[in-house]
Amino acid sequence: MSDRRGKVIAILAEDLYQVLEVWYPILRLKEDGIETKVIGTGSKTAYGSKEGYPVKVDAAIDQVQTKDFDGVIIPGGFAPDFLRRYDNIVAFVHRMHEEGKVIAAICHGGWLLVSADIIRDRKVTCFFAIKDDLKAAGAHYVDQEVVVDGNLITSRKPEDLTAFVRAIIEKIK
Questions:
Q1: Contact between residue 15 and residue 79 where contact means Cβ atoms under 8 Å apart
Q2: Which of 13, 29, 36, 91 is most solvent-facing, going by the fewest CB within 10 Å?
Q3: CB 119 within 8 A of CB 136
Q4: What domains, with CATH codes, occur in the chain?
Q5: Mode of pairing for the β-strands spanning 146-149 and 152-155
Q6: pTM value?
Q7: Which helix (H) or strand (E) holds 115?
């Protein structure tokens, strides 16, 4: 196993995030020596999950640069619908992709991949309710717990988190 200390992953947050899809990666990556930073849109200093459970942000999107991160996680819930409304969030994800960094989206996180225009001709998965959105954006949808296509890692739902985070850890070298 390579040393992953010093690696930093951004986790994007907005209201109505899926609680497990934020907290499981934070805790599991920490366990493996990978630092996480919760990045918000700048509208608040904390965001509530679908169940109300808050997550505090470490920084707003306008306070960070892609050079500070080795990857980004886009959790699901309804947060991605809010996140994609911020041009600077969309640009951040697009730039991370251009730089070949890990882009990991689970559940409805695929909506932000569509807005960042980074899934054309890529193999992906997502929560089944948004598969048509990803297909319309040119992606090749498959129904699997985790799909790795180059720097892009996608999963369907909270039950896939173990495989999803394992794939992220394997990609971060």
A1: yes
A2: 91
A3: no
A4: 8-171 (3.40.50.880)
A5: antiparallel
A6: 0.96
A7: helix 110-115
Q: What is the rounded CA–CA span in Å between residue 1 and residue 173?
A: 9
DSSP symbol at 46: E
User: Is residue 30 within 8 Å of 36, Cβ to Cβ?
Assistant: yes
Catalytic residue among 94, 97, 108, 140: 108
Q: Is 94 a catalytic residue?
A: no
What DSSP assignment string belongs to 57-96?
-SEEGGG--GGG-SEEEE--BTHHHHHTT-HHHHHHHHHH
34-64 per-position pLDDT tens digit: 999 999 999 899 999 989 899 999 999 999 9
Closest to 88 (Cα-Cα) out of 129, 39, 38: 39
| 93-108: pLDDT as tens digits | 999 999 999 999 999 9
